[in-house]
Amino acid sequence: MNKYKVLNKQEFKLENFSLVPIRYEDRLDIMKWRNEQIYHLRQDQPLTVDNQEHYFNNVVSKLFEQERPTQILFSFLKKDVCIGYGGLVHINWIDMNAEISFIMDTDLEENHFHDYWRIYLGLIEQLAYNELDLHKIYTYAFDLRPHLYKAVEAAGFLKEAILKEHCKFQDKFIDVIIHSKINEK
Fold first, then answer.
1. How many CB atoms lie under 10 A from the CB of residue 90?
2. Mean per-residue pLDDT pooled into runs of 10, the chain (185 residues)
């Protein structure tokens, strides 16, 4: 298992679920899910196997040794099977905040979206608050999936901002919704 130099604890567990440092073996599943869900990601074209190999070999591999990486990525496992991935991205070490990133296996969204988001957010809070002592974590989401807001709000995140017509989607400008949670300890 890869280990992040910045973390003392590498694995975060809740029930039958865990976050482990992103695994190379999950890269093609991650590529598939990203391509299937490209509509809500900041990704302008489908990924290829070559893109994914390059990203894992030249970007992800370097994150493990950095004292202050700009992102910390994890495989999201259920009973040791990867069912999603995400982490903290755009980490701002000066202001002690980070954006939450997460996608799950597209086939699981219909029946498990809220439950898996709830579990994932609980795990990512352990990482952000207990391990990294961040002050704030937040989501940055195109206004395309209202069911996402219900899931993050149920986990105690508050709608902090609406960036009006902030992104162009299918020749139309759409809002970006930001939800955040402050470390209360």
1. 13
2. 95 95 95 78 71 92 97 96 96 98 90 93 96 96 81 95 88 91 91
* Three-state secondary-structure class, residue 169: strand
d(CA 131, CA 172): 40
| Beta bridge pairs of residue 168 | 173
Q: Which residues of 30-67 are buried (b: 16+ CB within 10 A; e: fewer)?
A: bbebbbeeeeeeeeeeebeeeebeeebeeebeebbeee
142 near 167, Cβ under 8 Å?
Answer: yes
Tell me phi and psi for residue 135, to 5 degrees.
-85, -35
String of b and e for 165-184 (b: at least 16 CB within 10 Å)?
A: ebeeeeeeebebbbbbbebe
Inside any domain, residue 155: no
Assess if residue 93 is contained within a domain.
yes
Taking the C-alpha atoms of residue 108 and residue 158, their distance in angstroms, rounded to an integer, is 25
Give residue 28's domain range: 12-135
Element (H, E) at 105: none
Q: What is the CATH number of the domain that holds 125?
A: 3.40.630.30
Cα separation, 27 vs 12, whole angstroms: 20
